[in-house]
Amino acid sequence: MATGEQAYLDLCRTVLETGSKKEDRTNTGTLSVFGHQMRFDLSQGFPLLTTKRVPFRLIASELLWFIKGDTNIQYLLKYNNNIWNEWAFKQWVESEAYSGPDMTDFGNRSQTDAQFHELYSIEMEKFKEKIVNDDAFAEKYGNLGSVYGQQWRAWKTSQGETIDQLKQVIESIKVNPDSRRHMVTAWNPEDVPSNMALPPCHTMFQFYVAEGKLSCQLYQRSGDVFLGVPFNIASYALLTHLIAHECNLEVGEFIHTLGDAHIYSNHIEQVNTQLNRTPMNFPTLKLNQSITSIFDFEMEDMEIVNYESHSAIKAPVAV
């Protein structure tokens, strides 16, 4: 089985060469394979892809957002992180309070209609400004519902209480490292149909301790191979580093198991561009050693060192 960046590039080739054509909820269309696994040895470098530039600050700020249990994009926008904007914006433009231009199917229309794209960009900027500066507006339209942060930190029970899964799993790793129950799940069947802007794609993860090293395996039900999966790889690698740091362990492997791994039809050209590039060495991650709890880390406490990559490759987000 391929490791390092080659594992990701092989996934891209597998989907392009063997994927089945499938329709999807965004009406974009995909090539898709079912069931794929990649392994990354975290002791050999931090898996931030080099065949295209991947912005670490976006990955880190999103992960801190999850760790804090936050579900409102206001926090992300204050760090100039726009990766969840479209889902909140969709809620806003579909609400009765919205009275601006018709934004139906804005994700696809903004890619094919230059005049509409300009209109959409104006409306999105106005929306973002209101989210950042108007707390009441942000509370109503910036909240994405019971997405990752809430499920990780405040899972609802049938008794009306909450479970802090992330805190519990860290404590479990410390006191009973050989346990086979170091698990966190974001897939809550009660919340999926009605209380989430986007049902969780990375649905559950498990930690494993052996020989003083912490490994993590993620099960991801649905993976946007070009745009999403590179972020997921780096995000869970970072989470593994942070928890290993708190638990006084070294890092082991990140194992990424995918259910429906797909490339959107409007990403195929970009994927081929990436596959024609030569990978470089992975960078390293530097953490502030004075921080002892994962819940105390801030952006300035994490740094990527010696990151060299090819240029970024842009592609539209399917919403």
UniProtKB/TrEMBL annotation:
InterPro entries: Thymidate_synth/dCMP_Mease, Thymidate_synth/dCMP_Mease_dom, Thymidate_synth/dCMP_Mease_sf, Thymidylate_synthase, Thymidylate_synthase_AS. The keyword Methyltransferase applies. Its EC number is 2.1.1.45. One of its GO terms (biological process) is methylation. It catalyses: dUMP + (6R)-5,10-methylene-5,6,7,8-tetrahydrofolate = 7,8-dihydrofolate + dTMP. Catalyzes the reductive methylation of 2'-deoxyuridine-5'-monophosphate (dUMP) to 2'-deoxythymidine-5'-monophosphate (dTMP) while utilizing 5,10-methylenetetrahydrofolate (mTHF) as the methyl donor and reductant in the reaction, yielding dihydrofolate (DHF) as a by-product. This enzymatic reaction provides an intracellular de novo source of dTMP, an essential precursor for DNA biosynthesis. Its main location: cytoplasm. PANTHER family: THYMIDYLATE SYNTHASE (PTHR11548:SF9), THYMIDYLATE SYNTHASE 1 (PTHR11548). The keyword Methyltransferase applies. DUMP binds at residues 25, 180-181, 221-224, 232, 262-264. GO terms for molecular function: thymidylate synthase activity. This is Thymidylate synthase. PROSITE patterns: THYMIDYLATE_SYNTHASE. The active site is at residue 201. It is found in: Cytoplasm. Pathway: Pyrimidine metabolism; dTTP biosynthesis. Keywords: Cytoplasm, Methyltransferase, Nucleotide biosynthesis, Transferase. Homodimer. Belongs to the thymidylate synthase family. Bacterial-type ThyA subfamily. It comes from the Bacteria. Residues 6-319 form the Thymidylate synthase/dCMP hydroxymethylase domain. (6R)-5,10-methylene-5,6,7,8-tetrahydrofolate binds at residues 224, 318.
